[in-house]
Amino acid sequence: MPRYFAYGSNLKASRLRERVGGFEIDGIGTLADHRLSFAKRGRDGSGKACCEAAAGERVWGVLYRIEETQLALLDGFEAGYRRAVVTISRQDGSEVAAVTYHAVRFTPEPVPYEWYKLLLIDGAREHGLPADWQAFLAGCAAKPDPARR
Asked: How far, in Å, CA of 127 to CA of 142, rounded?
């Protein structure tokens, strides 16, 4: 069963469950030499989470064990991204291979909607990601969604 590294809205387990069904949580870890941004253009025009190459930086996320058929389902939700196999460092210092998604469609206004940003914050809290990462997410700019007024 492949590992999937979630760093965006799928950090929140209930969101991933709605999309692909059941899974196993396989811990937390980091993707080295990348930084989190919201430069991926969403279907709604807002910024969505993406990992961009950045020497010396890292992105925290959650490792899930999901079936290949579930990855295929997830592909349908991840328009504007491509699958990539990455190396994730676990808290114990070990490394594992995992599938994640890298953006291929970008926005000139890399700002997420408030509700989207809250998915990341809630997911980070749910999985016990480090307090400094949670503070980083909380400090990211966000804007109201005009469709949710």
From this structure: 22
Q: At what angle do helices 13-20 and 68-77 cross, to 10 degrees?
A: 100
Q: Rounded to whole angstroms, how far apart are CA atoms 101 and 94? A: 21
Full set of structural domains in the chain with CATH? 3-130 (3.10.490.10)
Sign of CA pseudo-dihedral 140, 141, 147, 148: positive
pTM above 0.90, yes or no: yes
C-alpha span between 23 and 65 (Å, rounded):
6
Per-residue model confidence as pLDDT tens digits over 24-49: 999 999 999 999 999 999 999 999 99
Hey, which residues does 90 pair with through a beta bridge? Answer: 29
| Tokens encoding 85 | 């196999």
Angle, helix 131-139 to helix 114-126, in steps of 10 degrees: 180
Q: Helix 114-126 to helix 13-20 angle, to the nearest 10 degrees?
A: 100
